[in-house]
Each structure stands twice: as C-alpha cells, then as structure tokens.
Amino acid sequence: MKKTLDDIQTQESRFVLNTYRRQPVAFVRGEGPRLYDVDGREYLDFVSGIGVASLGHAHPGLAAAVADQAKTLLHTSNLYYHPFQAEAAGRLSALSGLARTFFCNSGTEANEACLKFARRYWHTQGAKGRTGFVAVQHAFAGRTMGALSVTYDEHYRTPFEPLLGPVTFVDPNAPESLAAAVTDRTAAIIAEPIRGEGGVRPLPKAFSDAIADVCRRTGTLLIADEVQSGLGRTGYPFHSQALGWQPDLISVGKALGSGVPVGAALVSERVANAISPGDHGSTYGGNLLATRAAAFFLEQLMDGGLLEHVKTVGAHFERQLRALALKHPVIAEVRGAGLMRGVDLRIDATPVIDQARQNGLLVNRTSETVVRMLPPLTIDALTIDRGVEILDTVLATVGAEVHA
Ligand SMILES: *Cc1c(COP(=O)(O)O)cnc(C)c1O
Which of 172, 233, 361, 369 is the most exposed place for a label (fewest CB within 10 A)? Predict the structure, then answer.
C-alpha cells in the first residue's frame, strides 16, 4: 500500500532524531525542475535540494551513468586506485586553476579538510604558531566542530562550545578591521564569495578587495567556501573568480554530484606540496559512484554549454526579480548572482514560503526575512517566469495583509 504523508510523518516523529523543522510535504518523484508529492501534486522546484540537484531531477544521462555504475562497482575504498577520481579532479583543476583535489562526502567535510590543510601547510613551513582562522560575519561553513568554529550564528555555536580556536569574525562592512584581524598567528581566511545560508549576501567590493590584498601582503592562505556559490551557480566556474581572488583552497559540494553526495577540497600547488599520505582521509571519499556522478556533472558544465546557459537565464531571472521588487513594497532588496538569488523582505519570509508551496512553488527561507532561490542550473526562462508569477501572486496577498 502506498504511504500517505500522514504515515510518513507518524513514523518519522517516532524514529528520526528531531534535528529538522520540516515542511508538511513528502516528494516521491521528480523531472527536470519539477517535483511530485505523495498525492501526485506538482511543484516547481526553486530550491533543488539546497542547490544540489544542479542538473534537475531524474536527468536521463546522470541516471544512466549512476545505474551503470551501480551495476558495475560502487565502492572499493581509498586503499586502491580509482577509474574516475582523476577524471573529476582534472576537470576541477581546469575550472579552478588549482593543482589537486581531495574528495570527501559533503560541503562540511570539504571545509574541514581545507582547515586541516591550511594548518598542515604552516606546520610544514615551521610556522607552528599560525593556527588561527579569520572568518566573516553571517558565514556558514557546516556543523562539524571545525566547520562550526568558522560559522557565525551563535545559535549553532554556543551549545557546542568550546570550539576550535582562535577564530576572529570580521564585519564585511568594516574592511579596515580585516588587516587588524589577520596576524602572524593566522593560518587562513575562510570566506564565501556570496554568503548563502547567511541570507544570500554578496561581500562588499571594498571587503573582497581587502581579502585579496591582505592575503597577497601577508601570505595568509585564502579558503574560498564555494560549496553554494561554486560550480556554475552564479554563472562563473567559481564566484571567487568574479571577485578577483586567488584562493589557495576552494571547498565544493552541493552541485558537484547533482544529488549523489560528494564534496571536494581543491588545493594549490604550494599547499599540496605540504601534504603527505596519512594527513587526511575518508573511507567513502571519492568512491566510484560519487566521482562518476561528479565527472558527469562537470562534463555537462564544461562541455555541455551549462555555464553559458546559467549566464543567460541568470540575467533573465535577475530582471524578473527586479521587476517584482518594483511592484511589491514588501521587498526590501534583491540580491545574488546567476541562479543564486535572495529576495529580502521587510517581514519574516515564513508566510511567503508556505503560500508559495501551497501554490506549487518551492522556495526557501534563510536569515529570517530572505526568500532564497537556487533552481536547477538547467532551468529555462519560461519556468523561471512561471515561478516568478507564483511569487507575484503570493506577495500580493501577503503584502496586502502587511498593509491591512
Ligand atoms: C551548504 C553549505 C555548507 C555545508 O555543506 P553540507 O553539504 O551541508 O555539509 C558549507 N558551506 C556553504 C557555503 C554551504 O552553503
């Protein structure tokens, strides 16, 4: 018998650890930018599993590659050589200009690896006091102890202290404070080119220039956390390229496997030279399934015209959202780049998220007032228009309630 939403909710509430506040819907099937729930209702997916389903749902080419790999060989561990790791790593090198890749299983793990590699680098240089990190206010890097230490939100951090230290958070609106925060005890600066979970907040140009400048002057390593902003999401291979950064380390995840869990830390030659066997590792990291999916995604991105597509539809998306902002005074600001967009409201975004879903559009709330949108990179202009129309309808109702 087919499970109803009620069955699923009842079972989950008994057995699944209560770490998530879920919306009352369960999806069982997808196709391109569309999802279908247990009752067969269709939704436009402008969340794509938080920027993960980069090729949309049930992509035939990816499905064929994953099925073929499942029938052939899924996993052997890192005790042995792999047919697809270097294929995916070579493509990541070509996209980033960084020499080498370490594969892991999530964005958090990628950041964790970057933090370790940064400390390992200075340890090898004999600068054993360079262990600290400088991070940015409103940053999100993940929930494990290291990644959590460079995540800004007090709610995430406080119950789990003491965390890794020393970490200094700088205010991106005060670029002059960066030079003071970076000392001869700083291993690396870690920063998202556009803060995603923190509300789709681009870095002010003066601050992103200050990061590039202080790294150039002091040799401090730069870790670009591109887990959300990287791999085509903003219309660039990596958004740090748009900012003129030359990071030593880049973390990626989310889009890389298009739904198959995989993350990676990309590492410059000078940092790579400091790493030796045994310094880091992962049982699953870069297994055959994960790297086959990653190689497939990267091929679509680089040779399949996906990057150019994001530039075009991303510009279209921005025009539509700006037009929406002119119509609805409840919108305070439209932010982001490419297909990474945030609509910051003058009210809590929850009713907009809920009503959009009831009207068949999935969008996501972040930083309380922000409606975040990360549609599949394959989305077309007509589907964007349809989604923006639904938002238009919802904002008309919610906006009217605000003024009533
Ligand atoms: C999502 C995200 C992470 C964490 O990735 P997980 O795959 O959830 O571990 C880290 N950094 C940024 C910028 C993210 O958006």
Answer: 369
In the chain, % helix, strand, coil (3-state, to 5) comes to 45, 20, 40
* E runs forming strands in 4-85: 27-31, 34-37, 42-45
Q: Which atom of ligand 1 is nearest to the CA of 147?
A: 10
Q: How far apart are the CA of 358 and the centre of ligand 1, in A?
A: 27
Q: Measured from the CA of 197, which atom of ligand 1 is nearest? A: 15
Is residue 181 in some structural domain? Answer: yes
**Cα–ligand 1 centroid distance for 196 (angstroms):** 9
Is there a single domain that holds both residue 150 and residue 248? yes
Which of 19, 50, 103, 108 most suits a substitution to test ligand 1, by most atoms within 8 Å of the C-beta?
Answer: 108
Residue 68 is assigned to a structural domain of this protein? no
Predicted TM-score of the model (pTM): 0.98
State the CB neighbour count (10 A cutoff) for residue 333: 15
Atom nearest to 107 CA in ligand 1: 5
Do 124 and 187 lie in a common domain? yes
Query: Would you say residue 345 lies in a domain?
Result: yes
How many domains is the chain built from? 2
Dist. CA 113–CA 282, nearest whole Å:
10
How far apart, in whole angstroms, are the C-alpha atoms of residue 288 and residue 85? 8
Cβ of 111 less than 6 Å from ligand 1 = yes
- Among 303, 334, 352, the domain boundary falls at 303
How far apart are the CA of 353 and the centre of ligand 1, in A? 21
| CA of 114 relative to ligand 1 center, distance in Å | 13
Stretches in the chain below the pLDDT threshold 70:
403-404
Point out the domain boundary residue: 272, 303, 334.
Answer: 303
**271, 258, 65, 3: CA torsion to nearest 10:** 140
Tell whether 9 is covered by a domain. Answer: yes
What pLDDT sits at residue 400? 77
